[in-house]
Specification:
This protein is mainly α and 283 residues long. It has one domain. The protein contains 13 helices and 2 strands. A hairpin with a 2-residue loop joins β1 and β2. α8 packs parallel to α13. The longest helix has 35 residues. Keywords: Membrane, Transmembrane, Transmembrane helix. This is ABC transporter permease. It comes from Limosilactobacillus agrestis.
Length: 283
Amino acid sequence: MLALMKRNITLYFRNRVGILMSLLGALISFFVYIFFLQNNLVSSWGHINNIKPLLDAWMIGGILAIVGITTAFAVMGQLVTDRTEDVYWDFEMTSLTPLKISLSYFGSTAFVSFIMQLVVFGIMVGYFRWQDNLVITANKLLPLLLVTIINTIFSTIFSLIIVEFINTHTIYSRVATIIGTLVGFVVATYMPLGVLSSGAQRFIKLFPGSYIAASYRDLLTKHYIASDFPQGMHTEFIKFLGIKISIGKHLLTFSEDLYLVLGASLLGLILFIVINHLKYKRN
């Protein structure tokens, strides 16, 4: 099982084009923010102290949520390849059980998703530190690591479920393109949550990745909001940018965001087990 995990990880990192494509959604968000969105937001909220690093921290949270999903789905491309080339069925003829094979793909996908989030986080923090004097305090690192782990679990399960319904590389490539583009919208990164219609906001709130982005943003922006934010504008601002997401009139806390994502991940895992069992039973 560990050998199969190592194989999948090695194949992913050998494919430079695949790595770039898996980061496409994050790269699009990053450049849209730098060249277009940042100036518009700064002009709208320019009276707030340290608005640039605050907005940078907000963007980092959204991009990390994107990276977890797109890289997880990219690694799952190997599962599609193995099925279309009948390699997957060769694994079943070994001592590996279907459960161990699935765990191997799960483990390799989770590993890559986790590592890529850390790499992108380091790059963005370094850039915004140099450009806008962004500060990430040491006491945030452990909570950020926790969010990254939960994002990895959710993203891996989400990708596994989708790939279960994909049988060809053509379909996989099209779905990967859609996910890479769409995920930036559904975690409210291309546009702040507050500028979207009520229908679009309701749709975004149905996607667990939105709460991962909110968790990242809550952690990363807390220092600036606590120290520099004018009285009376706090709730309006955090709802507008999706730093906290409201359900009805209740603003979810950091812990509630994570519990919601973990609950969705558990339901997703149960769904995957059922789908995989039925599919294997048919075969």
